Amino acid sequence: MFAGVHTALVTPLSDNLTLDAESFRDLIDKQFDNGVTGVVPMGTTGESPTFSHEEHTRVVQLTVKQAAGRGPVIAGTGSNSTKEAISLTQAAEQAGADAALLVTPYYNKPSQEGLFQHYRAIAESTELPIMLYSIPGRCHIQIEVETVVRLAAECPNIQAIKEASGDPQRVIDLRAALPDDFAILSGDDALTVEFMKNGADGVVSVFANLAPTPLVDMVAAMKAGDVSKAEEIHSCYEPLFRGLLKLDTNPVPIKAALALAGECSARLRLPLVEMPEEKVEELRGLLSEAEIL
């Protein structure tokens, strides 16, 4: 289920900052029409912290309906409250999601034992397969390799990790310590090739919102052992991969890019705001260089 390209979907917003369902449906169709493995609604890229539980569940329901079995829907259901994460995960399961993505608790900074207990409680509350999500840049802690190994051994439905540390050595260490069927996904488009060289199975992609085909082709080339083809694709898009990270906080740049491409608005919910015009113009230049505009 987890190997391949899974798009971390943006949540398009209408004038009144509610879900733009038409643009969202079109975005989902574009992903599957261009060969992605699956989609991830209501993650960081989907602005999940600013959506109510009811809105969150509606987005997952819509995603499941529009995906229509074309690939797995991995619902973002993480929280820094274990009780809330359980509630969101169970709601996603009832909505028909195929799996859940659970970010490391942020702000309260639990110990590794706290992380273990947190994830075990969630795993025991659901039948859904679970992808852990370690992103120390946002949460200031990471799930240590030993904790991932412990969770994989004791919780059969914990089956994957989205690794967003930016450190290829983490992938090497995780791959050496985990069963072969435990999936490791890059959390950074720009590091997908490097991570797959070291044992990762694919990527949870922000860039694929805009242009899924290059990511699909790049990951397919790596899986086929054609590293030179994968590196060629990577080199074509690497400046844009980096730009989408550096111009502003995700998902601000990818929404701006989608707006420039005419696919949805750049609107965001506070506290996120749209990029200033000079950064939008810089992004326009990167998109032109990559022949996307």
CATH class: Alpha Beta
Question: What is the CATH architecture annotation?
Answer: Alpha-Beta Barrel
CATH names the topology as TIM Barrel
Which runs of at least 5 residues are low in confidence (pLDDT < 50)?
A: none
In terms of DSSP E residues, the strand content is 5-15%
CATH superfamily: Aldolase class I
Counting structural domains, the number is: 1
Gross morphology is: globular
Largest sheet strand order: 2-1-8-7-6-5-4-3
SS-derived structural category: alpha/beta
User: C-alpha Rg, in Å?
Assistant: 18 Å
Give the helix tally: 12
Main sheet overview: 8 strands, parallel
User: Whole-Å distance between the termini?
Assistant: 33 Å
Mean pLDDT: 97
Number of strands: 8
H/E topology pattern: EHEHEHEHEHHEHEHEHHHH
**What share of residues is helical?**
40-55%
Describe the protein.
It is built from twelve helices and eight strands. The chain has 293 residues and is α/β, with parallel strands linked by helices. The protein has a single domain (4-224), classed as Aldolase class I (TIM Barrel), CATH 3.20.20.70. Helix 2 runs parallel beside helix 3, helix 6 (145-154) packs parallel to helix 7 (168-177) and helix 9 (212-223) crosses helix 10.
What key attributes describe this structure?
293 residues; 12 helices
Short description:
The chain has 293 residues and is α/β, with parallel strands linked by helices.
Annotate the secondary structure layout.
Layout: E1 4-8, H1 21-33, E2 38-40, H2 53-67, E3 74-76, H3 82-95, E4 99-103, H4 112-124, E5 130-134, H5 136-139, H6 145-154, E6 158-163, H7 168-177, E7 183-186, H8 192-197, E8 202-205, H9 212-223, H10 227-246, H11 252-260, H12 277-289
Parallel strand pairs: 1-2, 1-8, 3-4, 4-5, 5-6, 6-7, 7-8
Helix pairs in contact: 1-2, 2-3, 3-4, 4-6, 6-7, 9-10, 11-12
